[in-house]
Amino acid sequence: MKARKVDGGTFASRLAARLKQLDVSYSDLGNAVGVSKQAVGIWCSGEATPNADLVARVAHWLGLMPRWLLNGDGQKGRTRPLTMVEMRQAALRSRLRAISAEAKQIRAELRALGAERDEAEERAWTRRGMP
After folding, report:
1. Domain presence at residue 3
2. How many alpha carbons fall within 13 Å on the CB side of residue 96?
3. Nearest CA to 63 among 23, 114, 22, 97?
4. pLDDT tens, 52-73?
């Protein structure tokens, strides 16, 4: 049975070291995973740790195993890190998903406003005695 390798550092120290190793800025990583550069800075300072979904996305973009990045155990590397072009593509896909979700919400709000307008017009016609 293989012995479990444990890195004694923290999530923050492992993340900061990997960003430095790959020369990736907080903005670059934030754009790639859909968070602000401030959020990445908070993670690197150890003030907070992202949720499991974000840890998995961060690990993927940096070519690391999520379990290793989060807890320091298991294998460090999983795949090659993404190139800056791949990170930018991922960031744009993330933004597009966000825009699509926002567009869907805007369409729903427009439909609701249209229904309100129609109801107001119907009430106005009814008050005037129009059929």
Report:
1. no
2. 6
3. 22
4. 989 988 998 888 889 899 888 8
